[in-house]
Amino acid sequence: MFSIGEYLERIDSSTVVDCVDGNRHIVSPGDVVRLIEHAGLYFKAELPNGAITSDCDLHMCFFKRAEEFNQPVEEKSVPHVHSVLIKAWADGAKIQQQEIYDPNKWFDVSSPSWNPDIVYRLAPRIAKVAATVRMVDDTVVFGRVGGPGLSVLVSVNVATNEVVDICKVQQ
Question: Does residue 161 carry a pLDDT above 70?
Protein backbone atom coordinates (compact mmCIF):
# COMPACT_ATOMS: atom_id res chain seq x y z
CA MET A 1 0.00 0.00 0.00
CA PHE A 2 1.07 3.60 -0.50
CA SER A 3 1.62 6.28 2.14
CA ILE A 4 0.33 9.84 2.31
CA GLY A 5 2.84 12.19 0.64
CA GLU A 6 4.32 9.54 -1.67
CA TYR A 7 4.63 10.13 -5.39
CA LEU A 8 2.85 7.66 -7.64
CA GLU A 9 3.19 7.10 -11.39
CA ARG A 10 0.22 6.24 -13.64
CA ILE A 11 0.94 2.89 -15.36
CA ASP A 12 -2.29 2.19 -17.25
CA SER A 13 -4.48 4.09 -19.68
CA SER A 14 -5.44 7.74 -19.28
CA THR A 15 -8.30 8.78 -17.03
CA VAL A 16 -10.28 11.98 -16.53
CA VAL A 17 -10.67 13.26 -12.95
CA ASP A 18 -12.72 16.05 -11.38
CA CYS A 19 -10.67 18.54 -9.37
CA VAL A 20 -11.42 21.02 -6.58
CA ASP A 21 -10.75 23.90 -9.01
CA GLY A 22 -13.95 22.83 -10.84
CA ASN A 23 -12.09 21.59 -13.90
CA ARG A 24 -11.58 18.10 -15.23
CA HIS A 25 -8.02 16.97 -15.81
CA ILE A 26 -6.51 14.03 -17.63
CA VAL A 27 -4.03 11.77 -15.86
CA SER A 28 -1.99 9.88 -18.46
CA PRO A 29 0.48 6.98 -18.23
CA GLY A 30 3.81 8.29 -16.92
CA ASP A 31 2.21 11.20 -15.05
CA VAL A 32 3.37 11.45 -11.45
CA VAL A 33 0.88 12.46 -8.75
CA ARG A 34 1.32 12.99 -4.99
CA LEU A 35 -0.95 10.98 -2.68
CA ILE A 36 -2.91 13.30 -0.36
CA GLU A 37 -5.64 11.09 1.10
CA HIS A 38 -6.82 7.55 0.57
CA ALA A 39 -9.95 5.51 1.25
CA GLY A 40 -9.33 1.84 0.64
CA LEU A 41 -8.18 1.30 -2.93
CA TYR A 42 -9.08 4.83 -4.06
CA PHE A 43 -7.18 8.00 -3.34
CA LYS A 44 -7.10 11.78 -3.67
CA ALA A 45 -3.97 13.32 -5.23
CA GLU A 46 -2.14 16.45 -6.30
CA LEU A 47 -1.70 16.36 -10.08
CA PRO A 48 1.45 17.45 -11.98
CA ASN A 49 -0.15 20.85 -12.73
CA GLY A 50 -0.85 21.44 -9.02
CA ALA A 51 -4.58 20.69 -9.23
CA ILE A 52 -6.10 18.57 -6.44
CA THR A 53 -8.57 15.82 -7.23
CA SER A 54 -11.94 16.51 -5.61
CA ASP A 55 -12.70 12.97 -4.49
CA CYS A 56 -10.89 9.74 -3.91
CA ASP A 57 -11.55 8.61 -7.47
CA LEU A 58 -8.12 7.37 -8.54
CA HIS A 59 -7.70 3.60 -8.18
CA MET A 60 -4.45 2.37 -6.62
CA CYS A 61 -4.11 -0.56 -9.03
CA PHE A 62 -3.39 1.85 -11.92
CA PHE A 63 -0.37 3.39 -10.14
CA LYS A 64 3.08 2.35 -8.97
CA ARG A 65 5.46 4.03 -6.55
CA ALA A 66 7.55 6.65 -8.43
CA GLU A 67 10.89 5.70 -6.85
CA GLU A 68 12.92 8.54 -8.37
CA PHE A 69 10.54 11.08 -6.79
CA ASN A 70 10.45 9.40 -3.38
CA GLN A 71 14.19 9.52 -2.70
CA PRO A 72 15.12 11.26 0.55
CA VAL A 73 16.09 14.86 -0.04
CA GLU A 74 19.77 15.36 0.67
CA GLU A 75 20.10 18.17 3.16
CA LYS A 76 23.00 20.50 2.57
CA SER A 77 24.99 21.05 5.69
CA VAL A 78 25.50 24.62 6.80
CA PRO A 79 29.02 25.34 8.01
CA HIS A 80 29.46 26.42 11.62
CA VAL A 81 29.39 30.20 12.02
CA HIS A 82 32.99 30.09 13.32
CA SER A 83 34.26 27.40 10.90
CA VAL A 84 37.02 29.58 9.43
CA LEU A 85 38.32 30.51 12.89
CA ILE A 86 38.03 26.91 14.10
CA LYS A 87 40.25 25.79 11.21
CA ALA A 88 42.75 28.59 11.91
CA TRP A 89 42.80 27.65 15.63
CA ALA A 90 43.34 23.98 14.75
CA ASP A 91 46.29 25.10 12.63
CA GLY A 92 47.80 26.94 15.64
CA ALA A 93 46.40 30.48 15.39
CA LYS A 94 45.72 32.43 18.59
CA ILE A 95 42.04 33.27 19.17
CA GLN A 96 40.45 36.12 21.11
CA GLN A 97 36.91 36.42 22.45
CA GLN A 98 34.97 39.67 22.62
CA GLU A 99 34.03 40.82 26.13
CA ILE A 100 30.25 40.43 26.47
CA TYR A 101 29.63 43.67 28.36
CA ASP A 102 32.25 45.76 26.56
CA PRO A 103 32.51 45.02 22.83
CA ASN A 104 35.67 47.14 22.61
CA LYS A 105 37.58 44.69 24.82
CA TRP A 106 39.00 41.36 23.74
CA PHE A 107 40.81 38.64 25.67
CA ASP A 108 42.83 35.59 24.65
CA VAL A 109 41.19 32.16 24.90
CA SER A 110 43.19 28.96 24.71
CA SER A 111 40.20 26.61 24.31
CA PRO A 112 37.26 28.47 22.75
CA SER A 113 33.78 27.00 23.27
CA TRP A 114 32.82 28.09 19.72
CA ASN A 115 29.41 29.19 20.93
CA PRO A 116 27.59 30.72 17.91
CA ASP A 117 26.39 33.60 20.13
CA ILE A 118 29.93 34.64 21.11
CA VAL A 119 32.14 36.79 18.88
CA TYR A 120 35.68 35.52 18.23
CA ARG A 121 38.56 36.82 16.15
CA LEU A 122 42.15 35.99 15.30
CA ALA A 123 44.41 37.58 17.90
CA PRO A 124 46.22 40.56 16.38
CA ARG A 125 49.85 39.88 15.65
CA ILE A 126 52.38 42.46 16.73
CA ALA A 127 54.96 43.05 14.04
CA LYS A 128 58.53 43.73 15.07
CA VAL A 129 59.73 46.83 13.30
CA ALA A 130 62.75 49.09 13.49
CA ALA A 131 62.10 52.65 14.62
CA THR A 132 64.14 55.78 14.97
CA VAL A 133 62.87 58.24 17.54
CA ARG A 134 63.89 61.80 18.43
CA MET A 135 62.46 64.36 20.82
CA VAL A 136 61.21 67.54 19.21
CA ASP A 137 60.07 69.15 22.44
CA ASP A 138 59.09 67.89 25.88
CA THR A 139 55.83 66.28 24.76
CA VAL A 140 56.03 65.07 21.15
CA VAL A 141 58.15 62.30 19.74
CA PHE A 142 58.65 61.73 16.03
CA GLY A 143 59.65 58.33 14.84
CA ARG A 144 60.20 56.69 11.52
CA VAL A 145 58.90 53.13 11.74
CA GLY A 146 59.86 50.67 9.05
CA GLY A 147 59.15 47.07 8.28
CA PRO A 148 58.86 44.89 5.20
CA GLY A 149 57.20 47.12 2.62
CA LEU A 150 56.23 49.68 5.28
CA SER A 151 57.65 53.00 6.26
CA VAL A 152 55.65 55.61 8.18
CA LEU A 153 56.37 58.73 10.18
CA VAL A 154 54.59 58.72 13.56
CA SER A 155 54.22 61.57 16.04
CA VAL A 156 53.13 60.67 19.57
CA ASN A 157 52.12 62.90 22.50
CA VAL A 158 54.28 61.48 25.30
CA ALA A 159 52.11 62.95 28.09
CA THR A 160 48.93 61.20 26.90
CA ASN A 161 50.53 58.37 24.93
CA GLU A 162 48.24 59.21 22.00
CA VAL A 163 49.22 59.14 18.36
CA VAL A 164 49.06 62.69 17.04
CA ASP A 165 49.77 61.99 13.37
CA ILE A 166 50.78 59.19 11.04
CA CYS A 167 51.90 59.68 7.47
CA LYS A 168 53.24 57.21 4.94
CA VAL A 169 56.77 57.82 3.73
CA GLN A 170 57.63 57.09 0.10
CA GLN A 171 60.34 54.42 -0.22
Answer: no
Length of the chain: 171
Domains of the chain, residue spans: 7-69, 83-122, 130-168
Encode 91-134 in three state secondary structure: CCCCEEEECCCCCCCEEEECCCCCCCCCCEEECCCCCCCEEEEE
**Is the distance from CB of 129 to CB of 142 less than 8 angstroms?**
no
Give me the architecture of the 7-69 domain, per CATH: Roll (2.30)
Rounded Cα distance, 104 and 85, in Å: 19
Note the pTM of the prediction, 2 decimals.
0.40
